[in-house]
Amino acid sequence: MTYVDPTSRELLADDAGTPKTFRDVVMAYVGLTKPRVIELLLLTTVPVMFFAARGVPELGLVLATVVGGTLSAGSASVFNCVYDRDIDEQMRRTRRRALPRHIVTPAAALVFGTVLGVASTVILAVWVNTLSAVLSVSANAFYVFVYTMLLKRRTTQNIVWGGIAGCFPALIGWTAVTGELSWVPIVLFLVVFFWTPPHTWALALRYREDYAQVDVPMLPVVKPARSVAFQIVVYSWVMVATSLVLWPVAETGVVYPVVAGVLGAIFLAQAHALHRRAKDSNELSVLQPMKLFHASNLYLSLLFVAVAIDPLLF
Question: Which of 178, 201, 230 is the last residue of a domain?
Fold first, then answer.
């Protein structure tokens, strides 16, 4: 039997009996799309378009790709919220979402997610190209069916392989401009792939009790912090090495490798610091995993900014 926090029950009861304004409902639908996740996905799409164009890409193409990508990512997030609504009600981090609060019904959310998905596919197919639309649909399907429904509640490797869906924007940004794939976007795809475990496991360390409560086998739930931190260090080294591979593969200018090297060194320092703290304690107050989590967001953001700037200078 799974324990439900009484506070959560009170919150849900209060929400169920409180009239909702139009703004409440609109914001609830927006929240279902997980805007912060979309921001990060777009940050790995637009810079790649600059890199593929070796300069500033056509504004209309960027706009169509951004709108299509936003709707696609939003669609996948909505479906994820519908499927995970049972555990979202019980987790501190997610129990204030629209479905646990009963502001939006599951049926309405499914319709919303479907409309977003169809709209994104049409926009990408008509105003970008077919390959980008196919990649977008593939990412959406992978996130919903492979990660959310198959992996998340079954294996500690859930976010390793499930994280593949979050790597697709790098491919889509490239194909939007070139109409084809090459080794350059694949390298960037792999950078995001190896970045995802350190990023997500740091967050999961912070909320490991939440995941344990709903029987989601995130690595920090089933392994001690020391083991998790060691794997974070391993993935971090591979991520930094992969990021530097872009230099010879894409024949970048000097800006990208310098920025990638500096950012990589800072990230590795944070990862090793977490590992040292994890050797001494399993307590959150000592581990401070959110330091690495926030550092990982900054790392990816600045790395892809460097991807965009490099071709403008060389």
Answer: 178
pTM of the model: 0.91
What does each C-alpha distance from 38 to 11, 30, 289 come to in angstroms? 27, 11, 23
Residue 298 structure tokens: 């900054």
Residue ranges in the chain modelled with pLDDT below 70 = 1-19
Within a domain: residue 68?
yes
Q: Which domain holds residue 57?
A: 6-178
- Determine the Cα–Cα distance for residues 122 and 124; give it in Å rounded to an integer: 6
CA dist list (Å): 190 to 159, 215, 241: 14, 29, 11
- Contacts (Cβ under 8 Å, ≥6 apart) of 132: 65, 68, 124, 172, 175, 176
**The dihedral formed by the CA atoms of 86, 89, 91 and 96, expressed in degrees to the nearest 10:** 140
Residue by residue, DSSP assigns 149-172 as IIITTT-TTHHHHHGGGGGHHHHH
pLDDT in tens, 226-239: 999 999 999 999 99
Predicted pLDDT of residue 93: 85
Whole-number Å distance between alpha carbons of 173 and 164? 16
- 1 occurs within a structural domain: no
Q: Give the C-alpha distances (Å, rounded to integers) separating 218 from 153, 194, 224.
A: 8, 17, 11
- Give the residue from 178, 209, 226 where a domain finishes: 178
The pLDDT of residue 22 is 86
Alpha-carbon distance values, 226 to 68, 179, 212, 217, 229 (Å): 41, 44, 18, 17, 5
CB 200 within 8 A of CB 163: yes
